[in-house]
Design goal:
The protein is mainly alpha-helical. The protein has helices at 38-44, 46-54, 67-79, 90-99, 103-118, 125-132; strands spanning 24-28, 33-36, 59-62. It is 47% helix and 10% strand. The protein is elongated.
């Protein structure tokens, strides 16, 4: 189990470019590979922590998700922010956050969705939800 670290935290995006830190390969739907630090992802996700420390996995198939969505997920884990979420990848990032139990990112996705639906100037809340389902 990863040591207790309060997330979200800014671990530093500059570490994303360091080959010596990035020991976990995330395979994406479009044949892409996103490399990340298993430690930083483990601090954010108990699921990834289990996969890397107990199951000793060095690669995770995220074949339901585009490289862009996985990249935003990893950037969020490194930076402690959800800056890269946009309409095109919102659903995927939200699903990744839920699957890997990154609770703070799930909350940020909910906040993004709420802001997005509130920006729609029409009808009931139920109608606004169906626009994005």
């Amino acid at each position: 189990m990863a040591p207790k670290v309060k997330v979200p935290m800014d671990f530093g995006r500059h570490l994303r470019e360091s080959p010596s830190h990035n020991n976990l390969k995330l395979n994406t739907s479009d044949g892409g590979e996103v490399w990340a630090s298993s430690v930083i992802l483990s601090f954010n996700s108990p699921v990834i922590d289990h996969m890397t420390t107990t199951l000793h996995m060095t690669s995770v198939d995220m074949l339901e998700f585009s490289e862009a969505a996985v990249q935003v997920f990893v950037d969020a884990a490194y930076s402690g922010t959800a800056e890269g979420i946009n309409r095109e990848i919102f659903r995927d990032v939200n699903k990744i956050a839920n699957v890997f139990e990154v609770t703070w990112l799930v909350s940020k996705c909910y906040q993004y969705f709420t802001e997005l639906t509130n920006s729609v100037k029409s009808g009931s809340y139920t109608y606004r939800i169906t626009l994005f389902v």
